[in-house]
Amino acid sequence: MLAMAGNIVAVTLNEAKQLYLDGDYESALPVFKKALASKPRDGSLNQWVGVCLMRTGHADEAEQYLKKAQSRGIAEAPRYLAELAFNNYSFNEAGEYLENYEKALLKAKKTMSDEAAGLQRKITLAKQMFDGVEKITITCLSTAKVSSKPTDSLRKAVRSTQPKYCPPVQNMPTKPLYICLNPKN
User: Fold this and answer.
1) Cα–Cα distance measured from residue 56 to residue 104, given in angstroms and rounded to the nearest whole number
2) What is the C-alpha end-to-end distance of the chain, expressed in Å?
3) How far apart are CA 152 and CA 158, in angstroms?
4) What is the pTM of this model?
5) Which tens digits make up the pLDDT trace of 101-142?
6) Helix, strand, or coil here: 178?
7) How far apart are CA 171 and CA 40, in angstroms?
8) Longest alpha-carbon distance in the chain
9) Cys-Cys link to 16, which of 10, 62, 81, 83 (CB 3.0-4.6 A)?
10) How far apart are CA 59 and CA 86, in angstroms?
């Protein structure tokens, strides 16, 4: 390994693996990517690249590598896909990935890590929370008036007791958009 300005840079694949295990994903990533370029179907390399990308803030790029790792039979890949799905509020999908992870662990006669068990609890709680949320469908917006300012009729429609409260329906880049369900004009 080389030390450059306080950062450790992996030169070999084994050094990159050690950096990965130590949580230094940024330093390990270039070596994994280089190795993956010559072996694009390698499940482990896809897993390592995917996790490194995920842990360095590139979750959108990570998914393709983790899915390839999963398709190549890497047992840990569904666990990371579950984390990605959870972070995108896709709790049912996250639960399905974690079920696949559990099946892979059972097959390999391994137990779930504490971190994965914590994720499983979070997914279960999030699914329960969303199951308890009332689903509302607005069926008549043909007479709706769109405005950039809150109106009394919208405050009444949401039964607000606070005179200045009027929730935005959609946040626009510069100002909120309000929809009045019972316009007077």
Assistant:
1) 26
2) 72
3) 10
4) 0.67
5) 999 899 889 999 999 999 999 999 998 887 776 655 555 444
6) strand
7) 42
8) 72
9) 10
10) 12
